[in-house]
Specification:
2 domains; binds 2-acetamido-2-deoxy-beta-D-glucopyranose; alpha/beta; globular; six-stranded mixed sheet; eight-stranded mixed sheet; metal-binding; secreted; Purple Acid Phosphatase, chain A, domain 2
């Protein structure tokens, strides 16, 4: 009888203990009485929709400061008193609701360092609408993001931990002896990484990447022989780009082998970075679609980005920012270079020129029975005017019909 009571006591204590643990785990993990936030992840992998499309919203140069306190630049005098970073927030919410993108790409100068004393807070506000939307997103840095309380490395690491963010500080190192940079590849800059977009659900390409997105850090400022200039993409980054592109194209070849009976289209890729390459200047003398509103502000160093892109073959279009009143697309040696156009109200612009965003739509080829690889890449822009006008729609790339 006695031992039975002891047994029951133990049993009860045991249950209470289990319950306490479950309660603790279920409610909150507490650290210094503050709940630990666990990053929210989007549904992965990224993939095309059932209708064979994948839509990206490019947001260039939000220039977010400290919210209500950061006034708008270059708006009509009658608008000045009622305009702040909150207008940028509203425009981002509107664009997400209107275009319903599958992915949002932020191409740098997301925050404007000099206008905030707390980079983390500014980032949380700037990316607030996309985090609330639950849409996967990624960002690279511009030349102004680090001009506040965080270094470029800290910024990228913070951005990569934000809800629904797929940003990475740098690609993981495959060489286990390479521990110099911790678990990252030894590569210049912060924010060099790739994301794969898989084929349509239910198709043979459902588990294969058909569209690769490359993100590169174009740096901030540098001094070359005593002269200040903008940053550029370094050889170590181009080396990584070449090997990642090659690896992904080999994977694609393997899929081709598996499917055998059906032709598989070569993989397509897009690239995103902040500072234009020097060759973009030449577009002034060629045909371009959109607005060439100011000189191209780029580095005095030409590190051979265009040459590399031409040689790897998969990148069809590059999306850049930096020059807010340029929003054109032009073609250099078969590769499109498109500006996003200034998005943020605290960034410079031109009075009377609406803030804008770019939309990129990739469409799959319809095979006999199912969706195949990428067939077409289109783009257009949306203005933050009363009609949210859609302008400059164009096809950037199309699979050659000869196949
Ligand atoms: C900024 O937002 C306010 C409040 O919604 C609005 O009244 C104002 O017109 C906006 N300004 C611009 C330039 O869009
Ligand atoms: C893709 O992966 C899923 C889950 O692993 C599997 O059920 C499906 O058959 C795969 N599809 C193809 C086309 O390989
Ligand atoms: C990036 O590319 C590599 C090939 O270099 C691929 O294995 C990897 O899955 C890609 N990363 C993502 C996140 O898609
Ligand atoms: C918006 O659309 C209306 C009706 O089509 C037109 O009258 C107006 O000029 C447009 N506004 C802008 C800024 O394009």
């Amino acid at each position: 009888m006695e031992s039975q009571t002891v047994k029951w006591k133990h049993y009860f204590l045991y249950l209470a203990f289990i319950y306490a643990i479950l309660y603790f785990l279920h409610t909150n993990l507490l650290l210094n009485n503050r709940p630990i936030r666990i990053k929210k992840w989007p549904h992965l992998p990224l993939r095309f929709r059932h209708d064979g499309t994948f839509k990206i919203l490019q947001v260039a140069d939000m220039h977010f400061g400290s919210g209500l306190l950061s006034r708008c630049r270059d708006v009509l005098p009658s608008h000045f008193h009622y305009c702040s970073d909150l207008n940028t927030t509203r425009f981002l919410k509107t664009m997400i609701q209107l275009e319903k993108p599958d992915f949002v790409a932020f191409t740098g100068d997301n925050i404007f360092g000099p206008s905030t004393t707390d980079a983390a807070e500014s980032l949380l506000s700037a990316f607030g609408p996309v985090m609330e939307s639950g849409i996967p997103w990624a960002a690279v840095l511009g030349n102004h993001d680090q001009e506040s309380s965080m270094t470029r490395e800290e910024l990228m690491s913070f951005i990569s931990l934000m809800d629904y963010s797929l940003s990475q500080t740098n690609p993981p190192s495959k060489d286990i002896n390479n521990v110099k940079r911790g678990m990252f590849l030894d590569i210049d800059g912060f924010g060099n990484y790739n994301l794969s977009v898989y084929g349509a659900p239910g198709s043979h390409l459902a588990n294969s990447s058909v569209l690769n997105l490359f993100f590169l850090d174009s740096g901030d400022r540098e001094t070359v022989q005593g002269v200040r200039t903008y940053g550029w993409i370094k050889e170590s980054q181009l080396n990584w780009l070449r090997s990642a592109s090659r690896e992904l194209q080999v994977q694609n070849e393997e899929v081709k082998y598996v499917i055998k009976t059906q032709p598989v289209d070569a993989s397509a890729a897009l690239a995103f970075f902040h500072i234009p390459i020097p060759e973009v200047r030449q577009l002034y003398y060629q045909k371009f679609v959109g607005r060439f509103g100011e000189g191209v502000a780029c580095s005095s160093v030409n590190s051979g980005v265009l040459k590399t892109l031409v040689s790897i073959k998969d990148v069809k279009a590059v999306f850049i920012g930096h020059d807010h009143t340029n929003d054109f697309c032009g073609n250099l040696e078969g590769i499109w270079f498109c500006y996003g156009g200034g998005f943020g109200y605290h960034g410079y612009g031109r009075i009377g020129l609406a803030r804008r965003a770019r939309v990129i739509l990739a469409e799959l080829r319809k095979g006999d029975k199912e969706w195949m690889g990428v067939e077409r890449i289109k783009t257009w822009k949306r203005l933050d005017d009363e009609n949210l006008s859609k302008i400059d729609e164009q096809v950037l790339w199309e699979l050659s019909p000869s196949r």
